[in-house]
Amino acid sequence: MDIRTVRATETYQQAGAYYVRIQGMARQHGITLRREFDEHDTPDTKYIVLTDGDFPVATCRLYELDRESVMVGRVVVLPEYRGKGLGRRVIADAESWIKELGFSKITVESRDVAVGFYKKLGYAETDGGIIHGDTFDCVKMEKSI
């Protein structure tokens, strides 16, 4: 594997993020494109894309919540690349970028099955409540950076 990090700010790079989300999440879980791509997917949204050579294999998106906080979400690794530490890497790369941008807090809405993953990365549950979404149950978590 030749894994590289792309801070996807151009359309062709964002297409890589969309590809991973379609293949690794929408298709796998029967999520319609209308539900997968929401009001937070805009030309100004920032994405991290991990590539194996030139092929996109993992992604996450980040967008500003307020002057101090950023939401990180839509964290997806293609099925054939799971279990290789790419989820941790995409989050670490997002955190680095977020620090450079001057933010101090990150919020995630973790799928209930991924809470342990985020806890290992230093995130804490905010209120313990479950957010019942259209597709998944999620838990809001935060981390100060």
Question: Secondary structure elements and their pairing?
Answer:
Elements: E1 3-8, H1 11-29, H2 33-36, E2 46-52, E3 55-64, E4 69-77, H3 86-100, E5 105-111, H4 115-120, E6 124-132, E7 137-144
Parallel strand pairs: 4-5
Antiparallel strand pairs: 1-2, 2-3, 3-4, 5-7, 6-7
Description:
This protein is of the alpha+beta class and 145 residues long. The protein has helices at residues 11-29, 33-36, 86-100, 115-120; strands spanning 3-8, 46-52, 55-64, 69-77, 105-111, 124-132, 137-144. The termini are far apart. The model has no long low-confidence stretch (mean pLDDT 91).
Mean pLDDT: 91
Count of discrete alpha- or pi-helical segments spanning 4 or more residues: 4
Q: What strand order characterises the main sheet?
A: 1-2-3-4-5-7-6
Percentage of residues assigned to helices: 25-40%
Radius of gyration: 14 Å
Shape: globular
Q: What is the beta-strand fraction? A: 35-45%
Question: What is the H/E string?
Answer: EHHEEEHEHEE
Report low-confidence residues grouped into runs of 5 or more: none
How many strands appear in the DSSP assignment?
7
Distance between the termini: 30 Å
Largest sheet, in brief, is: 7 strands, mixed
Q: Quickly give the structural class.
A: alpha+beta
